[in-house]
Amino acid sequence: MIFRNPQLLALLLLLPIFVVVWRWRGMRLTLAALALRLSAVGLLVLALADPTLGREAPPPGPLVILADQSDSLTEEGKAGLRAEAVRLAQAAGATSEGSTPRATILWFGANVVTSGESSDLSALATLDPAGSDLAGALRTARELLAPTGGRIVLLSDGIPTTDDVLVETQRAADAGLTVDVWPVEPIQTPEIRIAGFETPRSLRVNEDYPVQIIVAHTPASQSENATAPATLRIWEGERLLDEQQVALAPGDNTFSFRVNASVPGIMRLRAEVTGAPDTFARNNSAAATIRVVPPPRVLLVEGRPGNGRDLSRALQREDIQIQSLPAERLPTRLSELDRFDGMVLIDVPVSAFSLDQMTSVREFVRSEGRGLVVTGGRNSFGLGAYKDTPLEQVLPVQMDPPPRPQRPDIALLLIIDRSASMTAAYGISKFDMAKEAAILSTETLQDEDRIGVLAFDTGQEWTVPFQSVGQGLSLEQIQDAIAQLPSGGGTDIFGALFMGLNDLARQPSSVRHAVLLTDGRSFSNDRLAYQQLIAAARERQITLSTIAIGQDSDIELLDVLAQWGGGRYYFAAVPADIPRLTLLESEIARSDPTVEGRFNADVATPHPLMRDFAPSELPALEGYVATTPKETAEIVLHSASEDPVLSAWQYGLGRAVAWTPSVAEPWAQAWPTWDAYGRFWAQMVRYTLPESDAGPLQVRLIPQRDGVRLMVDALQVGGVPLDLADASARVILPDGTQRDVRLPQVAPGRYARDLVLPTDGAYAVAVALGRDGEQYEAGAGYVQAVPAEYHPAVAEGGRLQGRALLQTIAQMTGGQVLGSMSPPLPGVGDMRDSALAAQRFWPWLLGAALALWVIEIAVRRGAFLVARDR
Amino acid sequence: MTFLVPLGLLALLALPIILWLHLLRERRKRVVVPSLLHWQNLPRPREGQKRRRLPLTLLLLLHLLAAALLGVALAQPQWLGGLLGGGRHIALIIDTSTSMGAGDSAIIPGQGNSTRLDQARAHARSVINGLGGRDSIALIAAGSQAHLLATGDVDNRASLLAALDALQAGGTGTDIAGALTLAQAALEGYRAGRVEIVTDGALPALSATSENGLPETISVFNSNANVEWTIVGDERDNRALVALAARPRGGSDAQGRTAADVYARVANYGSSAFATDVRLFGDDQLIDTRQINLPAEGESELTWEVPPGVRVLRAEFDGRDTLPIDDQASLSLTQTRPIATLLVSADPGPLERALNAIPGTSIVVIDPGEYASSSLAARADLTIFDGMLPSRWPTGGVLVINPPEGNSPLLTVGNALSLVALERVQSQQLAPLPTGTSGSLFDGLNVDSVSFDLVHRVEVPSWATVQLAAGDVPLILRGRVNQSEVAIWTFVLGESNLPERLAFPLLMARTVRDLTPMPLPMALLAGEALTLRPGQRAETVEVLHPDGQVQHLVISPTLQFEGFTQPGMYTVTERAGSDIIYEGRVAVNAGAPLESDVRARPVPTDPGSNPGSSVAAAEQLPASRERQPLWAWFALAALAVMVIEWVYVHR
């Protein structure tokens, strides 16, 4: 109990005056009259002192009542909260003194409004109920109370649709304001809404893809289990794509539609469900955007003309644009490769590339984030001398074959042209370099390996007959014999091959390889005889590589001989190349990376590269180039001996894939006729391609409090900003209308503008940026989502639950939780808390004083005496 | 006058009772006396008159008056100001944005040349000085945020004028909508309320749509206010540096410093061309001077490449115009905030590589067995536990990867389960969940081909939310426990291909950024709010203003500071006791198209109210608050009557 006007208790000093006057004037009135008068005056003075009973006295300063009027409360709930807010304001107003306003009601939804000077609630017509800006309401209340202090009562379900609620709460606490909260339990209303619309981020033109629509059905009561009929429609832009009659079970219902991307750009999709019973119409639709990109452009680099023909056709059938190119014409400048999204190397040997070209391939992947697929064959990976080159760096495999339990022994035959043309007029001759090459080759061999050196012109002479390196002649003697090899006359390649290969076939080694070095043209050019000779050798597991020395050599013949021989063809433009190439061949022969034999690849790990393919579907393979996976490579397919067959990895910004068999012959002959050949390879190539939104322009739409910020970052290769350009954007609204806006530059390489999007739905933005005659274009999609107010699951999922949030607000500010209520019905709610309606006794005291006054008059008039006397 | 409890008037029924009592002949106490001789000559009342004649005496009147006063008091009478002719109730909104600091030709007596704010202040002063006895006023400042400065009446004139004098022009944008809401709230219940806005008209676009038909700002009008506009300021040209921004270049020098590309835009808001020199300073050393020719109503753009090592960049020109503060702009280029990272791992390889790529991160690796005794634990901004859990969460950012199985007080971790079998089915369903403020963690990250082969099933603590899940198996959790920002990766990193994915360094960088204090921006627009997430060990945060004033902020996990209204270089200092744990600078610039274009604007008009819910007009707010409760006065009067009556009876 407290007295609101304790100073008025001084008026009790009047009581003795009454007694003194009574006695002084001779006690004319009865003692009862005196007692009644004293009682009446005492009660009157007590009433004036205004005794109040309550848990605590209201603090000084006014009260701000924040009343939630967001749609999630339903119309009935909102009306109930209005009634409660008004009642609270009346109760607070009843305690006020003087002209100081005691209670202000702020109504909040997505905005905050107040009634101003009008006495009705017409101001609520300006309130946007599609949100719960709790932070904004708290901010406005804090500002209102800043000069005077005071307190806040918050009536809400505590499910805000804006962030910063706790930040604003902390500010209120810092300002010394207490926030009492009055949680309102949300009520369940029947609802049909689109809870999810799942689409891919991007599609290629003509790509067919399923999209999923999740429709949530909430019955009027939890016990209700009836299905609700509904109609589900999906639009692309303004075109109706499909319509389904569906039955919605309580909970989430998933439906699937297929969409086909036909035109490059931003595809705007809208899904809509109509059914009953339903409460909110605004959450009956959802939108999505899909970036539809043109078919990828892929550069197919062929090691030999035509060896990528089957693959090229298959990929084109899968909507991949292919440009085929011989290896030697591969651009060395990245800017020339910029128009390609990826690259496929079809059995290309390193010798076909310059160092600059290989570096370009590496940077194409590492720095530009493009894709690379390298396929096997007799000229690639280890067989193509990728070791220690930029190509090895970019690939997920190392060129060294995995260590084997038993190393094969090798028989290496060097067939060296000693014709007169091999001796140069000036400087070191080709013949000297060939001898040097032969000597170097011997150094790569081990004791159990065998070597033979056959020199030829029009005749043949065994400079070093076949023998083990560690037996017979010592290595020095062999090298001396080679060094003393004399030059001769004409050139008879066939004769040399005939003698050499026949002798090689008799060697007991498990690997038999011949290398032919010549600079001339053979007087015998019977291709059929060559083919038969080499075919016979191949049957005996002999391989043949050829090195053409100089432009005068019979390049065509040597190339075809290498093909028939299952080996490699090299061209040595200058004599100095001869030792390197010969050494390379001897090292390849020594390492023996070729694995031949029919096998079926096994899946090593589930991987997107094998999506929708079972291992048993894959046709058999007949060989591959053995490699060793790098530490961070992902092995997708492997051989029976667990060598990588298909492997992938992330290299810098791009992805690289290694396919160690061939794409067709010689190790995948059945593949081109496989009906899924194109799909398999298209999936592999697409896996390596960069995200479709990569490019010099990056367009982003960043949600802001009052709209979105359209931000375009324009960076050239190497991160150099594209400054001082003219940038503009065309915005396509959900209704299909278009708006053009200019984008001013705001920072190096950045152009931006703030926009307010008028309606929910899918927006497409096309940005054009021009500078110095060059035009850059990019696009982006954006979905202005249905407000979270209409998606209770979303609102509840990511944030504190309503009641917990309100409790936190009260706790942070030293306020109280005033009690929980269901949404009260208009007019039937009542004050439930004495803290706000502290009980005041003055009316009772005043009434008692009046009653005593009348009784005193009656006593003095003798009314009671009359009754008694009678 | 109205009655709050009209039922109280029932107490007036006492009046007829008193009348009835007075109609009764007064009965005296019967006393036995020896003789009636002396009373024989007294006049005797006639028969039949004793109940009909009302003795209209002063006593009766006093009795009736006291009862009437008490009865009326019980009905709780109130005066309504409006009925008395009332006073004026004014909500005065004063635009305090940067453009109000523009000089003006108007002369204010005693002050000479003035700014627009001076004119607004003079107008407001005249309104305050003209307040009558019943008038009241609410003073509202509308800068980038609206503030209620003071409310009061004629008795509060001094405090109102003091609040007015303290106003300063500064800040970009004028929150007219917020100011109108405050004004309406301040006027709630007053019948004769009026809102007056004093502005130079440099306001956000008030129309619903811009010239291209796409809305660029919201309507400021969210209520049906009775608004009067007072426009101050005259036609003046102005030129301003409206954009200055930098972007670090890739690569760094031997000291790890990077060069930067710089962009600046100078705008001419005037009808005549203008030529001037733009000077660029790096750490107060002149770097470059460029001459620009600004066409009328035109702009000029400039770019530079600034060498590594420059900490503060400033561009300026001599605009010779009405608003000099927007003729320069600054940037603080060294905004990287050092992150002391403690990596507790037996196999730190991939983690250490990813952390090394994050600018400003210094890493110390220790074995899990050494953690308990490590002195570094208390100093780390970020602690990463790989395959272990501490006994309590360390202060600061905490990332737990591959938490060990068991029931710890911190976390309940179940068996590791393999997701390989589920991979083919679920890889397409692997999707980030909405996470509120941390939603940007996965923006643009492609996790489609990431396989999380071995995952611990972690019981999600109450303080954490799931940010990434495969089916119902949580993969990434995030939450806050006391002074620890905690993220948990439930998978075994070594069994996942995530470290080989392009997404890994990005995910790691974003996680580190999410768990550790925010770096300051290079620059802010005047009036723009700054969200600060100070270090967890910080006990105080101070903001040193350009004028030397120091402002202490109450520490909390996230601070929003709105005091950057004046241009200049501000210093933000975080302290733990007497130790400075972070000190950074942020530049605040005044130049912005909205404020720097100080040419006269038309008076805005209300485009109409927003559609909203319809409310029955029958619903009424509480009665007008412009009232004076009178019951106490009635009660006092009744008391006075009682005293008088007592004296009268005993005269």
What this model shows, in words?
With 870 residues, chain A is of the alpha/beta class. Chain A has 20 helices and 42 strands. Helices cover 27% and strands 31% of the residues of chain A. In chain A, the strands form 10 sheets. Chain A has an 8-stranded mixed beta sheet with strand order 17-16-18-19-33-32-31-28, with helices on both faces. In chain A, strands 23-22-21-24-25-26 form a 6-stranded mixed beta sheet, with helices on both faces. The radius of gyration of chain A is 46 Å and the shape is rod-shaped. Mean pLDDT of chain A is 83; it is low at 55-60, 95-101, 793-799 and 821-837. In chain B, the strands form 9 sheets. An 8-stranded mixed beta sheet of chain B has the order 18-17-19-20-27-26-25-23, covered by helices on one side. Chain B has a 5-stranded mixed beta sheet with strand order 7-6-3-8-9, with helices on both faces. In chain B, helix 1 runs antiparallel to helix 2 and helix 2 (58-74) packs antiparallel against helix 10 (631-649). The chains are: A alpha/beta (870), B alpha+beta (651). At the A-B interface, helix 1, helix 2, helix 3, strand 4 and strand 5 of A face helix 1, helix 2, strand 7, helix 5 and strand 10 of B.
Outline:
The complex is a heterodimer of chains A (870) and B (651). With 870 residues, chain A is α/β, with parallel strands linked by helices. In chain A, 27% of the residues lie in helices and 31% in strands.
Share of helix among residues of chain A? 25-40%
Q: Helix/strand-derived class of chain B?
A: alpha+beta
Largest sheet of chain B: 8 strands, mixed
Q: What radius of gyration of chain A results from the CA coordinates?
A: 46 Å
